[in-house]
Amino acid sequence: MTLWSGRFSTAMDATLWNLSESFSFDAVLWRHDIIGSIGHVTGLATAGLVTPDEADALIRTLEQVADEFAADAFIRAPHDEDIHMAIERRVTEILGPVGARLHTGRSRNDQVATTLRLFTRDALEDVGVLVADLIASLQRVATRYDAAILPGYTHLQRAQAVPLSHHVNAHAVALTRDLSRLADAQSRLNISPLGAGALAGSTLALRPDVTSEALGFAEPFVNSLDAVSDRDFVAETLFALSLVAVHCSRMGEELVLWTSAEFNFAHLGDDFTTGSSMLPQKKNADVAELARGKSGRVIGNLVAVLTMLKGLPLSYNRDLQEDKEPLFDSLTTITLVLRALGGTYDSLVWHDDVTRHAASDEMMLAIDLADWLVERGTPFRDAHEHVGQLVASAVEQRITLSEAAAASEFWSGSDAIFVPLSSLQRRASAGGASFASQANTAKWLENQVSSHLSRLRARGVTRPATM
Ligand code: ARG
Comparing C-alpha atoms, which of 367, 383, 331 is closest to residue 152? Predict the structure, then answer.
């Protein structure tokens, strides 16, 4: 028997059941649904809709059901359509008539919105911790190879030499923006929908502020129609995850390039590479390729939810049930990718000799020569022209830039420009690619990570130790 059987004379068609049931994917919400129900019971007790003893019995039973889920011992009944109905059915089965009071003044519409916000609130913190771990892996690369240099690229053409630490820190800086976005998304979703009922609130003396506080939300909803139909928080979370995925994808692409024989800038540990079923010599950077490839489905999940939302009239519509699989899938995917990418950077072995050689390509000192002229009073456009001519003549004669400069009176005195690494030392501008600026960046990264993580952890704690 379904929980709504009063209004119906025949059972649901099997095809509709298969289309409609969501327990098969929303059972992962059990913990947060039970937390939400405990908050609701607190509200019922405050409103005098259950006695203190009944409230105690309901909470104890909800905890018992939580234990069943935690022990993988919960048995789904044939009519358990989704996680919310399954839990209520089980509570009633254990408690009898008192259990039948649990859903007083509540609809699955405000219930599912509450459960999903509680779930997402925790999930954003969990992802934040993994993003911070990846930043730490990047920083370990920077420390391990603190003297390494490589060419910096624009248009994938060699542009200017940079320290490896400056390069990996660039990815870390992008990831701090992700941390900040995750914390923003979390603070915006921290509104309690409980008490909105099906769509219009309740005639009962329930107080949304009481349940909001019990569940550690910042405040209760202001409009019940919006409370049950708002899934902005899902879309926003999926966008934040999409940008994390895009950042991981770019790092993945770079690792694929770096570990190719053509670049040969680095190799990955055996524990983070795969072989070929046919070609015995192969060692493939599959982790990096999957970090790149998985971004497609994470972006797809965002588009799926935005598309599902765009035509919905107020308020709750069953379409909204389609918010869950994309959200769960993106969270699972990002969790895997962040962990694997961190491990990959930890296993990375840098080929210092190769990249030092690549970074000593004198053509990358062309701008230093132009700056040298500028410092001696030449307007930059003219300096650019002079250096351009020097580059052209070096290319034509198949000699290096320093050889070409040495052969011309015009460039006399410029030899210091060509002293290895002197370019990096001279580039002392704030945030620039000098070794000296890396210590500041490391400090900045540390501050960003700790301030965003503490924001992510600052919201109300509703995860009891036992659950
Ligand atoms: N499983 C449903 C969902 O995720 C629960 C809400 C169903 N509400 C309803 N009125 N049919 O959206």
Answer: 367
Q: Would you identify the CATH topology of the domain 14-104? A: Fumarase C; Chain B, domain 1 (1.10.275)
pLDDT at 466 over 70: no
Name all contacts of 290-293 with Cβ < 8 Å and 24+ positions apart: 290/252, 290/337, 290/340, 291/248, 291/249, 291/251, 291/252, 291/255, 291/337, 291/340, 291/341, 291/344, 292/248, 292/249, 292/252, 292/253, 292/256, 293/249
Distance 153 CA to ligand 1 centre (A): 51
| Tens of pLDDT, residues 68-96 | 999 999 999 999 999 999 999 999 999 99
For residue 260, pLDDT over 90 is answered with: yes
pLDDT at 461: 59
Q: Where are the domains of the chain?
A: 14-104, 109-204+222-355+441-457, 361-419
Would you say the C-alpha torsion 50, 53, 56, 57 has a positive or negative sign?
negative
Distance CA 112, CA 95 (A): 23
412 CA from centroid of ligand 1 (Å): 79
Ligand 1 atom 3 nearest Cα = 321
Cα 434 from Cα 426, distance rounded (Å):
8
Mean pLDDT of 353-377: 93
Nearest of 255, 417, 36, 241 to residue 404 by alpha carbon: 417
**What is the model's pLDDT at position 467?**
58
Is 321 a pocket residue for ligand 1 (Cβ < 6 Å)? yes
Say yes or no: CB of residue 357 within 6 Å of ligand 1: no
**Ligand 1 binding pocket includes 116 (Cβ within 6 Å):** no
Q: Which string of DSSP letters, residue by residue, matches 132-162?
A: HHHHHHHHHHHHHTTT-EEEEEETTEEEEEE
Six-digit token string for 320 = 């909204």
CB 211 within 8 A of CB 126: no
Give the pLDDT confidence of 167-208 residue by residue, as tens digits.
Answer: 999 999 999 999 999 999 999 999 999 999 999 999 999 999
Ligand 1 center from residue 210 Cα (angstroms) = 24
Q: What is the average per-residue pLDDT within 215-228?
A: 97
Catalytic residue list = 155, 276
Element (H, E) at 382: helix 380-397
Global confidence as pTM: 0.93
Only one residue has tokens 């409009």, namely: 223
Q: Which CATH number fits domain 361-419: 3.40.50.300, 1.10.3720.10, 3.40.50.2000, 1.10.40.30?
A: 1.10.40.30
Q: Kind of pairing, strands 157-163 and 149-154? A: antiparallel
Look at residue 272 in the predicted model and tell me its pLDDT: 77
Looking at residue 70, its pLDDT comes to 96
